[in-house]
Amino acid sequence: LAKTTQPISMDSYEGQEVNITCSHNNIATNDYITWYQQFPSQGPRFIIQGYKTKVTNEVASLFIPADRKSSTLSLPRVSLSDTAVYYCLVGGTGGGNKLTFGTGTQLKVEL
Amino acid sequence: DTGVSQNPRHKITKRGQNVTFRCDPISEHNRLYWYRQTLGQGPEFLTYFQNEAQLEKSRLLSDRFSAERPKGSFSTLEIQRTEQGDSAMYLCASSRPGPGGYEQYFGPGTRLTVT
C-alpha cells in the first residue's frame, strides 16, 4: 500500500476554507484516494473518494493533480464542529479492502 | 438507527481475564472488519470477514485474539488472557458487497481497559 504523508495538525477559524494536503508519491495505477474524518471517541467516517481531477460532494472537495502524487481535501467554510482528525488513505477499491490509516491531521477550528 | 452497533461500549477487566466484544453491522453489508486504535494513532486493521468467512487476519494479531461471524451477520471478537497492552479502542466496520470496499461504516467502538 502506498504510504501517505500529511501534516500533523492545522488550525483555522470558523468560516474559513481549509485545505489539507496529503502526499502519496508511490501511488499505484489502480489506487484510489480516500479521506476519513474522526471525532473523539467515535469511529472514523467516510468523507470522500477520488481517482483523478476533482470530486465534490455535499461536505468536501478533493483535488488530485495529473501526476496523482498528492491530493488536497478542501473543507469550505469550516465550523467548530469540523474539529476532528482527518485521515488520507490510498489503495484499491476492490472488495474486501482493509484500511491502512496513518496518524492523520488534527484540525482545530476556533471562533 | 441502522448503523453499526458495538457492545459493550466500555469494558474494564483485570489482566489475565478473557473478554468478548460484539459487533452488529448494517444489515445489507456482507463485509465486516475489526480494527484497534490506541491513543494518538489511526485505527489498525485486525481482521476481515466476507459473509461468515474470515478472509484476512493481520500478522499483528496474536493467537490470543479470535473473531467469529457464525451466520454472516453479527461478529464477536474475543481476547484471551488479556494483557495491559491490549488496552485500546476496538472498532468494527462494515461495507457493502461489490466495489467500493473503501467506504466503510464504523461503529462507536468498545473501549477496553486492562488493569
**Average pLDDT metric of chain A:** 91
Q: Quote the distance from N terminus to C terminus of chain B.
A: 33 Å
Averaging pLDDT over every residue of chain B, what do you get? 92
CA-based shape of chain B:
globular
User: How much of the polypeptide of chain B forms β-strand, as a percent range?
Assistant: over 45%
Extract low-pLDDT stretches of chain B.
none
Helix count of chain B equals 0
Distance between the termini of chain A: 38 Å
Task: Compute the number of helices of chain A.
Answer: 0
How would you explain this protein's 3D organization?
The complex is a heterodimer of chains A (111) and B (115). Chain A has a 5-stranded mixed β-sheet with strand order 1-9-8-3-4, with no helix packed on it. A 4-stranded antiparallel β-sheet of chain A has the order 2-7-6-5, with no helix packed on it. Helices cover 0% and strands 47% of the residues of chain A. The mean pLDDT of chain A is 91. Chain A contains no helices and 9 strands. Chain A is an all-beta fold and 111 residues long. Chain B has 115 residues and is an all-beta fold. In chain B, 0% of the residues lie in helices and 49% in strands. Chain B contains no helices and 11 strands. Chain B has strands at 5-7, 10-13, 19-24, 31-37, 44-50, 53-57, 65-68, 75-79, 88-95, 105-106, 110-114. In chain B, strands 2, 4, 5, 6, 9, 10 and 11 form a 7-stranded mixed β-sheet that branches. In chain B, strand 5 (44-50) and strand 6 (53-57) form a beta hairpin. Chain B is globular. The mean pLDDT of chain B is 92. Classes of the chains: A mainly beta (111), B mainly beta (115). Chains A and B meet through strand 4 and strand 8 of A and strand 4, strand 5, strand 9 and strand 10 of B.
Quick overview:
The complex is a heterodimer of chains A (111) and B (115). With 111 residues, chain A is an all-beta fold.
